[in-house]
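hey can u run this one w/ FE2/S2 (inorganic) cluster bound, need the structure tokens asap thx
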Amino acid sequence: GISLMKLAHLFGVDVEGACGGNLACSTCHMIFSPQDFSRLPPMSEDEEDLLDLTPGVTPTSRLGCQII
Ligand code: FES
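ok here u go:
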């Protein structure tokens, strides 16, 4: 599969991904509308843990590299 982060890069969307999708940076942080958020695949515990440390995290935040 291809992650939402990679897809964003392909379409020239300005989102980072400093660690290359290895759950080590959180620069791929994305904030979704509640509608979109509810349609995303569930979060892993590792994603949740890193999101907890992400600046500006919101209830509808995800890490783009983990959405595949
Ligand atoms: Fe580093 Fe997603 S690209 S955590």
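The first helix runs from residue 4 to 10. anyway lmk if its weird
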